[in-house]
Design goal:
globular; 509 residues; mainly alpha
C-alpha cells in the first residue's frame, strides 16, 4: 500500500475517533438544548446564527484560499513560501475579522427591523445572541491560518483532539442552560461565543511550538505578488461562497417569512442530523483534500483526478452507510433522539439526505478545480445558481405552495445545475472524461442506493416500528450496500480496501 494511502487511512482513523465521541456528544447536546430552549427559541437561535453565517462568507473564501496555497506549497516543498503564506494569511484574517464585525453590527439593525420574523417578546434576547455570535465569528476567522497549517501537514490527530475538546465544551454549555435560572437563550448564546476563543488559543500555542512556518513577522515575510495571488483566488472563492451562504440563509428567511420560526426549527434539525450523518464522509474528505492539492502542486495531474474519483466514491458510500437506514427509519430515529419534534421535520430530514447524497457524487471534483487555481468562471456561475432559488421559492410560496416544495426547488438549482457546471469546468480545466465519470460514479451509486432503500421500505411493510425493525434494517441494508460497494470499486480501489482490512485485522487481532 502506498505511503499516500497509508497517510490518508491513518488520518481518517484519527478523525473517525473524534467522530465517534463528538457524534454521541452532539446528539445528546441537541436533545438537551431543544428540550431546554423549546422549539421556538431553538428556531430563533438557528435563524440568528444563520445571519452570522450569511455575512461570514468572507472568512469562508479566505479559508479556502489559505488552505489551498498552504497545501500547494507543501507539495512543492517550498518552506520559505509557507512562511510568506502564513504571515499574509494572518494579516488578511485579522483585517477580515474587523470588517466582518463592523458589517454584522450594521446589518443587525436591518435584521431586527423588518427582515427576521421573531416574536416581539423574544427580540431583545435574540439581539444579545446576535452580538455574542459576532464575537464568536471574530475568533473563528482568526483561527483559519492555524487550521490551514494543520491541514497542510495532515496532522489530523491533534485536530481531532481539539474537536473533541470543543464538543465537550458544547455539552457543558448545554448543561449550563438546563440549570440556568435566567433567560436560557441568552445564556446559551453567550457561552457558545466563548468556545471559539478557547479553541483558537489551543491551536495557536500548538502551531507556534511545532511548525517552523508559524512565525509572525509581516515585515520580513510579506510578498506583494503572493498577496495579489491569494486575494485574487479568495476574491473568486468569495463569489461562490457568498452565493452559497446568501442562498442557503436567504432560503431560510423566505421559509421564515411565510411559515414562522417552527419551520426554521424543523430545517435546523434536518441540517444538524444531516451534518452528524456526514461526519464519516467528511472525515475522509478532510484527510484527502490536502493530498489532492499537494498532488497538483507536484504536477501529477492524472493522479489528482484518480484521487478525486476515489474520493467521490468513498464519500458517497460512507454517507450511504449511515444515511440510508436513517432515511427509511426517520420517524423512529427522531422519536428516539428528540422525543418530540416540530411538524415537517420528517420530510425535511429525508429531502436533506437525498440532497447530500447527490452532492457526494461530485464533491471532490470541486477540490480538484480549486487545486488548479482556475476558479473564476465556476464561482461566477455558482453565485448565480445559488441565488436563483430565492426568487423561485418566493414565487412558489406566494402562490400557496406547501413548505415541502422548499427542497425540490433548492435541489434543482443548487445541486442539479451546480453539478452540471462543475463537471463541465472539470472537463475544461482538468481533462475530465465525462462518460468515464458518469459510468464510474453517479450511475452505479444511484442504482445501489435505490436498491438498498427499496429493501428497507419493504421490511417496514412486514414489521412494526421499533428497535428490532431498526436493527434488522441496519444489518440487511448495510450488507447489500457493502456487496454493491465491492462491485462499484475499481480493481485498484478493491486492492486498497482489502489492504486496509488486512492492516486493521493484523493490528487489532
Amino acid at each position: 500500500m502506498s505511503q499516500t494511502a497509508n497517510r490518508v487511512i491513518k488520518n481518517t482513523g484519527y478523525l473517525y475517533a473524534k467522530m465517534a465521541i463528538t457524534m454521541f456528544v452532539s446528539l445528546y447536546t441537541t436533545r438537551l438544548i431543544l428540550n431546554s430552549l423549546g422549539a421556538s427559541d431553538f428556531g430563533i437561535y438557528n435563524i440568528v446564527g444563520g445571519a452570522i453565517a450569511m455575512l461570514g462568507f468572507l472568512n469562508v473564501a479566505m479559508a479556502s484560499a489559505t488552505q489551498r496555497f498552504m497545501s500547494y506549497s507543501e507539495g512543492e516543498g517550498n518552506k520559505e513560501k509557507q512562511k510568506n503564506i502564513f504571515n499574509i494569511s494572518c494579516i488578511l484574517h485579522f483585517c477580515i475579522s474587523i470588517i466582518i464585525a463592523l458589517i454584522l453590527l450594521a446589518a443587525g439593525w436591518f435584521f431586527f427591523h423588518g427582515i427576521l420574523n421573531i416574536p416581539a417578546d423574544r427580540v431583545s434576547a435574540a439581539q444579545v445572541v446576535y452580538c455574542s455570535l459576532i464575537v464568536s465569528t471574530v475568533f473563528t476567522v482568526m483561527n483559519v491560518p492555524y487550521d490551514a497549517v494543520m491541514n497542510a501537514h495532515e496532522n489530523m490527530r491533534y485536530y481531532a483532539v481539539v474537536g473533541i475538546i470543543e464538543s465537550f465544551l458544547k455539552l457543558a454549555v448545554a448543561f449550563a442552560c438546563v440549570y440556568a435560572k435566567g433567560d436560557k437563550l441568552i445564556v446559551y448564546g453567550v457561552l457558545m461565543a466563548a468556545i471559539p476563543f478557547i479553541t483558537l488559543t489551543i491551536m495557536k500555542v500548538y502551531c507556534h511550538r511545532h511548525y517552523k512556518e508559524c512565525v509572525i513577522n509581516p515585515r520580513k515575510y510579506y510578498d506583494k505578488k503572493l498577496m495579489r495571488e491569494m486575494t485574487s483566488f479568495a476574491g473568486w472563492s468569495l463569489a461562490g461562497s457568498m452565493g452559497g451562504i446568501l442562498g442557503n440563509y436567504g432560503n431560510g428567511i423566505v421559509l421564515n417569512s411565510f411559515f414562522g420560526t417552527i419551520l426554521n426549527a424543523a430545517l435546523g434539525i434536518a441540517n444538524q442530523l444531516n451534518g452528524m450523518l456526514m461526519v464519516f464522509s467528511n472525515s475522509m474528505l478532510k484527510a484527502l483534500a490536502p493530498v489532492i492539492v499537494k498532488t497538483e502542486g507536484g504536477g501529477e495531474h492524472e493522479k489528482m483526478l484518480e484521487y478525486s474519483f476515489t474520493g467521490c466514491k468513498f464519500s458517497f458510500l460512507l454517507f450511504s452507510l449511515f444515511c440510508l437506514p436513517c432515511f427509511v427509519e426517520t420517524p423512529y430515529i427522531l422519536r428516539l433522539w428528540l422525543k418530540e419534534y416540530p411538524d415537517w421535520t420528517i420530510i425535511f430530514v429525508r429531502f436533506q439526505i437525498v440532497r447530500t447524497l447527490m452532492e457526494q457524487t461530485y464533491i471532490t471534483l470541486g477540490t480538484s478545480l480549486n487545486a488548479t487555481g482556475k476558479i473564476k468562471q465556476t464561482n461566477l456561475f455558482s453565485f448565480v445558481l445559488n441565488l436563483l432559488p430565492l426568487f423561485l421559492l418566493s414565487i412558489a410560496f406566494w402562490m400557496g405552495a406547501s413548505p415541502w416544495w422548499y427542497y425540490p426547488i433548492v435541489m434543482f438549482c443548487m445541486v442539479g445545475l451546480a453539478a452540471t457546471s462543475i463537471i463541465y469546468y472539470c472537463r475544461k480545466f482538468c481533462n475530465l472524461n465525462i462518460w468515464l465519470y458518469l459510468k464510474s460514479i453517479p450511475i452505479p451509486c444511484f442504482m445501489i442506493s435505490i436498491l438498498v432503500i427499496s429493501i428497507g421500505f419493504a421490511i417496514t411493510q412486514f414489521l412494526n416500528q421499533g428497535l428490532e425493525r431498526l436493527m434488522i434494517n441496519v444489518v440487511l441494508m448495510t450488507l447489500v450496500l457493502l456487496i454493491g460497494t465491492y462491485w462499484l470499486l475499481s480493481s485498484k480501489e478493491r486492492n486498497l480496501l482489502t489492504n486496509v482490512i488486512k492492516k486493521f485485522h493484523h493490528k487489532f487481532f
